[in-house]
Amino acid sequence: MSTTHIDTLNYLDNTGDDPAVRARLVVGDNDFHSVTDKVCGIVEMPKTPPMWWVAFAISSSLTLVLFSMIGYLITTGIGVWGLNVPVGWGYAIVNFVFWVGIGHAGTLISAILFLLRQRWRTSINRFAEAMTIFAVVCAGIFPGIHVGRIWFAYWLFPIPNQMLMWPNFRSPLLWDVFAVGTYATVSLLFWYMGMIPDLASIRDRATTRLRYYVYGFLSLGWRSSNRHWHRFEFAYLLLASLATPLVLSVHSVVSFDFAVSIMPGWHTTIFPPYFVAGAIFSGFAMVTTLIIPTRKLFHLEEIITKRHLENMAKIMLATGMMVGLAYSTEFFVAWYSGNQFEAFTFLNRAFGPYAWAYWTMVTCNVVVPQIFWFRKLRNNTLILWIASVLINVGMWFERFVIVVSSLSRDYLPTSWGYYRPSAIDVLTFVGSFGLFFTLFLLFIRFLPLIGMAEVKGVMPQAHLDRPGHRGHGDYHGDIAGAEVV
Amino acid sequence: MKDQTTTGGESTVLYGYLAQFDKVDELLVGAARVRDAGYTRWDAHTPFVIHGLDAAMGVKKTILPYIVFAGGLTGTTAGILLQWWTNAVDYPFLISGKPLFSLPANIPVAFETTILFAALSALVGMLALNGLPRLYHPLFRSRAFKRATDDHFFISIEAEDPLFDRESTRKLLESISGRPVEEVEDEV
């Protein structure tokens, strides 16, 4: 195909909403081989890009900060944190809920969008699933170290022990152990299974012995057999169907940690859907924050197209609105319930000592996403990136507001208090970002960050070349003569 | 074993024939022809899932869903039994005068164990039915076959197939792929 420079620019832009034109999911002059080349090329690069090293140096240093803070905590005691008597849940629980929430976008993209036949997911699902797993790793650390005497952390699990006691299965905290544990395991299975054919692609292109053996071992001898694909597709469908209720249950169970208590501001039935919507919102924001620099660094703009970013912006707009609705519903119910403690809690959130956190949350989560109504703004990569970072900030503050403001002022004014994180709290939180980014950087360098086999399946060349059935794009309405090829 | 040959000190035996295709359409037509010729020990190899290929090959629907269902039921039972045994029998937990064993409080954990067991059986079942992991396979000896995970499509017919015949099978594959077939050998 020969095109002028101007034509190429237009051709790369697949964000139009004209229903007569089926949007291409892979733009540019790509075929199956060029997709393999682009994705495997990242793993095969002889020299790692300098920007990767810079990012890795920073993130691995921050990981060391995390580990030193945990070491200090264990050797000294939980007093190094800013917790006090009314506020017994501080940064650790805020960070736990924040990181678990981030993970939800990965499962939404890989499972729910798969069931809904949203084919654009193929370019970003591997990436988002990886993010899920690393976020759950970060999340898992916090309850573990929050128990104080972490050498007793095994009490969380139903393991026969010297006290002949078992954990209490009627506590949501134990449900959480099972929910998060299952979520981490299933996400890992799903991620790995989807990656097997792509690991085989790297194996088959290997030019060094080491790469041949490592990827050969990881791909389990996958030989692209259609009889295997048949069962693979079924396993994928089943895992997607299992992961869908699972992802909705995980943040619901996390919300039970709060909702099952009698704390004003926590004891409410809106929590499960409100937490799930917020989780998806924050997760998409994190995917966007990570994917924009990655696609730039590795020149993947033709596979992770502007349309993918635009779709994510639309999901953020929708879930941001749901979160906004939940904020206002909480206020309405606090008034409508006639419960004076509930009413006080919400007035206290908006106008009390933590008002600064509350309004940061509202600004970032409700006001900022409104810019996505405008096509020009949501299609501007820089603006989208800044907005996604702000949403991440806002969603962290949401958890801070929920956890801290309710605890600091509950029923008895005599037991009110103000919570201030210590430097150790802040450094532990910042360090957890280091761990997250370190795992992420290793992933994008050593594993196929785009599901090649799935992307190839949504390219027009993958389908029968007969009229009326060509190219699977975003739209399924097939209008003759309007096909973009 | 038939047709044993020795090349370069290594004795090999014919594993089967490998035919290559460039386009999805050609592969689908070819697969239907091989199916209709009555072969049973053959396969298609594609870099991604191709819709319609299962029908063109006559692949029977997998039993995997039943395995996953059994796995899920096992998970539910295990989750309920675990909670009943630990909180009602072995170490009775009396909380606010509530019954020692009541289903509603046990649903979340039973749900999670259901999903966990079902998901594990989906992955393990898929691999077991596919006979994976299997790090060595005679097809990996073919240089051209490396493109099967990239952009080329293949049909392989095993020499073990009862209908396999050096001449007629070669003719069939060459007529559908329009190019010479490759003989794939295996170690004895």
* Largest β-sheet summary of chain A: none
Assign a percent range to the helix content of chain B: 40-55%
Q: Hey, roughly how much beta strand do the residues of chain B contain? A: 15-25%
Kindly state the number of beta strands of chain B. 5
Count the DSSP helices of chain A. Answer: 16
- What string gives the helices and strands of chain B in order? EEHEHHHEHE
Question: How far do the termini of chain B sit from each other?
Answer: 9 Å
The CATH architecture name of chain A reads: Up-down Bundle
Can you describe this structure?
The complex is a heterodimer of chains A (485) and B (188). Chain A is mainly α. Chain A has one domain (50-458): Up-down Bundle (Formate dehydrogenase/DMSO reductase fold), CATH 1.20.1630.10. Helices cover 66% and strands 0% of the residues of chain A. Chain A has 16 helices and no strands. In chain A, helix 5 crosses helix 9 (271-297), helix 5 packs antiparallel against helix 15 and helix 9 (271-297) packs antiparallel against helix 10 (306-336). Chain A is globular. Chain A starts with a helix and ends in a 28-residue tail after the last helix. Residues 1-9 and 466-485 of chain A have low confidence and may be disordered. The radius of gyration of chain B is 25 Å and the shape is elongated. Chain B has two domains: 5-60 and 136-187, no CATH class; 64-130, no CATH class. In chain B, strand 1 and strand 2 (10-21) form a beta hairpin. Chain B is built from five helices and five strands; from the N terminus they run ββαβαααβαβ. The longest helix of chain B is centred in the middle third of the chain and has 28 residues, at 103-130. By secondary structure, chain B is α+β, with helices and mostly antiparallel strands. In chain B, strands 1, 2, 3, 4 and 5 form a five-stranded antiparallel β-sheet that branches. At the A-B interface, helix 2, helix 6, helix 8 and helix 16 of A face helix 1, strand 3, helix 2, helix 3 and helix 4 of B.
